[in-house]
Design brief:
By secondary structure, the chain is of the alpha+beta class. The protein contains 20 helices and 7 strands. The protein has one domain: Beta Polymerase, domain 2, CATH 3.30.460.40. The relative contact order is 0.11. The N terminus is likely disordered.
């Protein structure tokens, strides 16, 4: 049964990454100019001002191959959002609108399924008495985009107080949810910040006890502190808690940076969070510094402002990023623009985004180790939590360590 579940899980996840495989095949035939032009089209389509209605935006749209725009939109996770902007634009070719429309409809369907899954999950979690909150996913769609459904996401992310981790796992399993993790040796060794479940729908539920899943290093986002400040919201009629606006913005920026920092969806989330759920900027700076995440937060805020026009207070980036780190960012961006990374694991820009803020020594070691590991074609499978490995003893030890992780 375990083997069947593992293959089922891998099949489900592979279907989610199929657009990435399509892009990898396409980008082999693209030059830097085509990628830059299509990326600029996406940027114009997602800006609140100076969009594709502008003279330059319209000219770029006319000059760029529809299949390139669509493929890049899928990689960047913004095809549904781009469709919403283009559907009423005169001159938008149907050869572009048709695949974007299909992606938009899939995003809406996934969001409806996710909010239904959340309504089923809520009584299970509430029944444990353990504090919990929804992050990203349906919270982003409802709070940042007005519930329109165009923002694509693949899973339902829930953060729980680590002291009640075993109670939550027991409640989910008692209610028939299927745990997907199989590599308890890796989970225990690396103290991964999440485990994975599946309920009645194919949607994956990511159960976090820490919002930084791997490679925390100096970074911190204390779960108990985040949950104490969580606010009550209604997501498609379901009353739940989510992170307060300041914590949410910091998390969006940090998650984007340690994931590589090269997807437009993350930049758009940040721009919307700045605009719609205005944070307390002094708290953005003080919490980011206290948690040692100021540099990655500043990097992603700066990138969102430059690419999508996110409105930031004067001097904010200087308060978050040291002059030395800013010089490094500018040098890497100039030599290896993030727009061209397109998910390449060894892209210097992605590696820089993931390591910045860890300190010069730790960051350098991280860069070397990750670069070497990425050369191994078996690395992804071996390090996956879905690859069978470890024992029940490893599982018990992992759960025990999680529950003690924020002990007073």
């Amino acid at each position: 049964m375990d083997t069947e579940r593992w293959f089922d899980t891998q099949s489900m996840r592979s279907s989610m990454t199929a657009p990435h495989e399509e892009l990898r095949a396409l980008r082999r035939s693209l030059d830097a100019r085509q990628i830059a032009r299509a990326t600029e089209v996406l940027g114009h389509s997602l800006r609140e001002t100076g969009g594709l209605e502008s003279e330059r935006g319209a000219r770029l749209l006319a000059l760029t191959r529809p299949e390139v725009i669509w493929s890049l939109a899928r990689y960047h996770g913004v095809s549904g959002l781009v469709y919403q902007r283009l559907q009423s634009l005169a001159g938008a070719p149907e050869s572009l609108l048709a695949p974007l429309r299909s992606d938009f409809q899939a995003s809406v369907h996934r969001h409806l399924r996710s909010t239904w899954e959340l309504s089923q999950l809520k009584p299970m979690l509430d029944g444990t008495g353990v504090p919990w909150a929804v992050v990203k996913g349906p919270a982003a769609v409802e709070l940042l985009y007005g519930g329109r459904g165009g923002r694509l996401y693949h899973d339902l992310d829930v953060l729980v107080d680590p002291s009640g981790f075993s109670q939550v796992l027991a409640a989910l399993e008692a209610n028939g949810l299927q745990q997907l993790d199989r590599n308890w040796a890796v989970l225990r060794r690396e103290m991964r910040g999440e485990v994975h479940y599946r309920g009645a729908s194919p949607l994956e539920i990511d159960l976090h006890w820490n919002l930084i899943n791997m490679y925390r290093g100096r970074f911190r986002m204390p779960t108990r502190e985040l949950l104490q400040r969580a606010v009550v919201v209604h997501l498609a009629g379901v009353e739940v808690c989510t992170l307060d606006p300041t914590d949410s913005l910091i998390h969006l920026c940090l998650h984007a940076a340690i994931s590589g920092g090269d997807r437009i969806m993350w930049l758009k989330d940040i721009e919307r969070a700045v605009t719609v759920r205005t944070p307390v900027w002094d708290d953005v700076v003080s919490r980011s510094r206290r948690w040692n995440v100021a540099a990655p937060v500043g990097l992603m805020l700066s990138r969102s402002a430059q690419f999508l026009g996110a409105q930031l207070p004067a001097g904010l980036i200087r308060d978050l990023i040291s002059p030395g780190a800013m010089r490094l960012i500018r040098a890497v961006d100039r030599l290896f623009p993030w727009q061209r990374a397109l998910g390449r694991l060894t892209s210097p820009n992605r590696l820089m985004a993931r390591s910045i803020g860890q300190g010069p020594v730790r960051g350098a070691v991280w860069l070397v180790v990750r670069s070497i590991r990425n050369l191994d074609p078996d690395q992804e499978r071996a390090s996956s939590s879905f690859t069978p490995g470890g024992t029940e003893g490893d599982r018990a030890a992992f759960i025990e360590s999680v529950m003690a992780s924020e002990a007073d």
